[in-house]
Design a protein that fits this description.
Layout: E1 2-11, E2 14-20, E3 25-29, H1 36-48, E4 67-75, E5 81-89, E6 93-98, E7 101-102, E8 115-118, H2 124-127, H3 130-142, H4 146-168, H5 173-217, E9 223-228, H6 237-250, H7 252-258, E10 269-274, E11 277-278, H8 279-282, H9 285-306, E12 312-316, H10 324-336, E13 341-345, E14 362-368, E15 371-375
Helix pairs in contact: 4-5, 5-6, 5-9
Length: about 375
């Protein structure tokens, strides 16, 4: 899958811009605040319906305007050519269109254009709490399984309703039990499918992670990960359901006391290991950076093997933290990958030493004060 053309209107520091992309490597350089990240964030919007930088759509509107519009032309194996556009205005919210037809749900966009993003914020994956790793895993699987995404959205709705019941009827045990029963049934079935799918994907993902860490680090340290959930994980949801029901019964009083759902995949954890030690607790800053990079390379290669269309890969300002040997290894890996890649860099390294910019397959862009130029 690749994007051939991007149009931006009132998006971040781009008042109005249009750019055509090369099918393989696209390197974008320029000073900080020039609009480099905005370009790839716009592509992310058209793939995932949201920003990978901002927490709210209203923060990406060009100063003084009330709306933004994005439009991208895509090509792939499943869909030969199609157009995706995104509009957001204060008061009306966000809308996504595919070939001018509106999507009923924003979630319908997920997986249509698979995308992997590597940014400086990815250090949170290994340094911060379980929520960061669950979010990474959910986004990862949702792009390759629409059934998983549906289960995830249903589970959040079920848990929210169940928490409301625990809060409203905690003082009336009989009414609470009567109301909880149908929601417990849905919670167990949906949650068990989520756990089974997470376990299945992570078991396979381990192999990609080990291979990519060895490649990028050049070290003999082995990588591993442990999926921690409320029961013994398996790929069979029915086997999980039995344990799930029992644990709900055992923790019923605690849930009533705390007025919230305590058992389920919303509390899962993924523990990363490097050699014999837990990365989060004992890893150095350099090891955390290389591990995060390996996670995203592993995601890229996993998608490449599993999907009919190659994913779009975006690297936002990551080369500044790499020494020359790691830079060379990464650029060689990106050239070998057949999919489309975007690289932003504030302080351009000598990319020309590793990449041949012919204008057709690979292109070099400069951005300054919202103005985009193709460098020749």
């Amino acid at each position: 899958m690749l994007i051939t053309k991007l149009e931006l209107l009132h998006f971040r520091n781009h008042q109005k811009n249009e750019v055509e992309w090369a099918p393989h490597l696209n390197v974008i350089t320029g000073p900080n605040g020039a609009g480099k990240t905005s370009l790839i964030d716009a592509i992310h919007y058209l793939c995932m319906s949201r920003s990978f930088v901002s927490t709210s759509d209203m923060y990406v509107i060009y100063q003084g305007e009330s709306y933004f519009m994005l439009k991208g032309n895509f090509e792939g194996e499943i869909r030969s050519e199609f157009e995706v556009s995104c509009t957001y205005s204060r008061g009306e919210g966000k809308k996504i269109f595919v070939n001018d037809g509106p999507l009923d749900r924003l979630s319908d966009l997920i997986g249509m254009v698979p995308v992997v993003v590597l940014s400086p914020d990815d250090k949170k994956l290994t340094l911060e709490g379980p929520a960061e790793r669950r979010s990474f895993l959910d986004s990862f699987i949702s792009q390759i399984s629409s059934a998983y995404l549906r289960d995830l959205l249903d589970y959040r709705r079920i848990r929210k309703q169940r928490n409301t019941l625990l809060q409203n009827y905690s003082s009336n045990p009989q009414m609470l039990e009567m109301y909880l029963d149908p929601w417990d049934h849905q919670l167990v079935e949906t949650g068990s499918r989520i756990v089974a799918k997470r376990f299945e994907v992570l078991e396979k993902f381990k192999e990609y992670l080990a291979k990519d860490y060895a490649m990028i680090s050049g070290m003999n340290l082995t990588t591993d990960l442990e999926y921690q959930t409320f029961c013994e994980a398996t790929t069979n949801p029915k086997e999980i359901e039995e344990s799930y029901r029992e644990l709900l019964k055992e923790n019923h009083e605690k849930e009533v006391e705390r007025e919230q759902t305590l058992i389920g995949p919303h509390r899962d954890e993924i523990v990363f290991y490097l050699g014999d030690f837990e990365l989060r607790r004992f890893g150095s800053q350099g090891q955390h950076r290389l591990f995060a990079l390996s996670l995203k390379l592993a995601q890229l290669h996993y998608y490449s093997d599993e999907l009919d269309d190659l994913p779009i890969f975006m690297l936002d300002d990551v080369f500044g933290d790499l020494d020359l040997s790691k830079t060379e290894i990464l650029l060689k890996a990106l050239q070998q990958h057949k999919g489309q890649t975007f690289i932003t860099a504030a302080n351009p390294i000598p990319f020309e030493n590793y990449v041949h910019f012919d204008g057709d397959r690979n292109r070099f862009y400069t951005v300054n004060e919202g103005v985009i130029k193709t460098k020749t």
